[in-house]
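Can't paste images in this forum, so I'm doing it all in text. The chain is below; anyone willing to post the predicted structure tokens underneath?
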Amino acid sequence: MTDKKKIDPNHAHKERPAITKKKEKVKAVSKQLAKTKTVALLNVRNLPDRILQKARKQLRGKAQFVMAKNTVLKRSLEASEAKELSKMIDSPTVVVISDEMSAYSIYKHFKDNKVNVAAKPGQIADRDINCSGRRN
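Text version of the structure:
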């Protein structure tokens, strides 16, 4: 005779706190997305935190940065009118939302404030690296 516990089908399953927080975050972000005029995605892979924080400071009051796990962001985008953007998330991403700025002006801000950073071990260069020691 084995001592197995019987599973009661009427027993309510208690959700883990982390799952509850993620569901609340999805609701909050999708609500924000529904109210805003402009939604942009920012790939933050290999982006140093100091550069991201500088951009957040420069755009304070004009744009809002939503940072969360990719699955939370994808579900939020799918629950809003910006469903097409959820397919574009394939690396660590930040959602930038704004009522004051257009998508072009957000893009232009990041393009104008581009900074070269030192490569870290294991990173893949996006352009040729001159190893001769001379500057071009």
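Residues 62 and 100 are 6 Å apart (CA to CA). The chain has five helices and three strands.
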